[in-house]
Amino acid sequence: MPNLQKSPFEVTILAIESSCDDTSAAIFQNGRILSNVVASQAVHKLYGGVVPEVASRAHQENIVPTVDAAFQKAGVQKQDIDAIAFTLGPGLMGSLAVGVGFAKAFALSLNVPMIEVNHMHAHVLAHFAEDPKPPFPFLCLTVSGGHTQIVLVENALKMSILGETLDDAAGEAFDKTGKLLGLDYPAGPAIDRLATQGKVRFDFPEPQIPNLNFSFSGLKTSVLYFLKKEMAQNPYFISENLADICASVQDRIIRILIKKLKKAAKQTGIRHIAIAGGVSANTGLRKTLELTGQIEGWTTYVPRFEYCTDNAAMIAIAGYFKFLNREFAAHDVAPMARMAF
Amino acid sequence: MIINEIFIPNLSALKQAVKTLLKVANGRKKIMLYGEMGAGKTTFVRVFCHHFKTKQAAQSPTFSLINEYYYIENNRNQRIAHLDLYRLKNIEEALNIGIEDYLDDEQYCLIEWPDLIEPLFPPDVLKIKLEIIGDNQRKIIIL
Q1: E strands in A99-211
Q2: pLDDT digits (tens, 9 = 90+) for A236-256
Q3: CATH class, B5-142 region
Q4: Rg of the Cα trace of chain B?
Q5: Which residues of A touch B42 (CB under 8 A)?
Q6: pLDDT digits (tens, 9 = 90+) for A263-284
Q7: Does residue B43 sit at the A interface (CB-CB below 8 Å)?
Q8: Do B63 and A225 touch (CB under 8 A)?
């Protein structure tokens, strides 16, 4: 059985993340991430997205080598592991099942406890991978291809959603408007790059959504109307104005996000503001957050890119907090594609 | 009377359009949603789910591929499956996410970008196309 008498500082955790595209394994020890290995599935580049069958197969291929690499990089032995943390959900069922199955087998063979982790909680807790770490309570805007949430983080185990998207995620808004512009899907990084070369010249309407929720589906539609009108007059409109359109779309998405974040900060009185998730890699969002923080008197937190996208380090951290609270998973635990926050 | 088209003059008229479409469907539960990006397919599903008072509001399944929403009818839990095949490249991938289960059962199944799986359509499928007429104006064409 696990040595629960160990000081919290001596705990060693192996974490597995396999909810979506990437297989990842990380080793956490003494409050530090010793390794965080992500097997990026180049095969997906050919397909342009998350393809479930390809994803679960690739996870099967990658999981053992990825875990081996994590151990090697960390310089830790398998016997040193006190617990294994894994992503229970949300995610693609076939992909999650690979990680959950692996975690069970590993935990049984080493006779150590398992810790189930909610992927969305882990994104928030990625901020504890490195300094500076936000103090509790803080607000976290989690933005990715599948999610857009403002989370009130009271402590590592207690967090709640203050607002979320009613339709499309912010990342999806990037990807789909990019598609309308003829960019390859997913188009987020390309829009970010083009936006830096363009000027904000076109105004897209702001969605009128009450409270702290978001909507990005209307933006996509207004970009579509706009392009149709302009293209009817000038068939080269997109190619002649691509950078400016990208800058304008990106500016609108960012302003929608920041406006709600400001509202949440005002409502809660919290001034420690963090962003997480794949879209927090967007340079425009990072800059705007920093600027807004200076004006509003916030302390802002943006994790390094490797902790923004899906990774096992964040699963390890979330697992560690649960370990301290002795929250372990039963052996009949099963992955959950849709999971309550 | 045979209805071939439902005109939707504004967003709030979508609620009535869902009711009309359910009459047209006449018990058919597999609904294929055609229409270009921005035509309002996900919005249609959102209003559709609202009509059935699902516990959770519909969100875009482009990333998750499949969303399931639950509602209670005659004291029984019922499900609306909401799929988006936009990111799939071939029919094998659709089979591998278990699409046949959703097409075969007795529950509602609404599929965006269903072109890929046309060979798998059950005989009583309802195909509709959302078409943009103007800003905020749409038309549902029963195919």
Answers
A1: 114-118, 138-143, 148-155, 158-164
A2: 999 999 999 999 999 999 999
A3: alpha beta
A4: 14
A5: 167-168, 217
A6: 999 999 999 999 999 999 999 9
A7: yes
A8: no
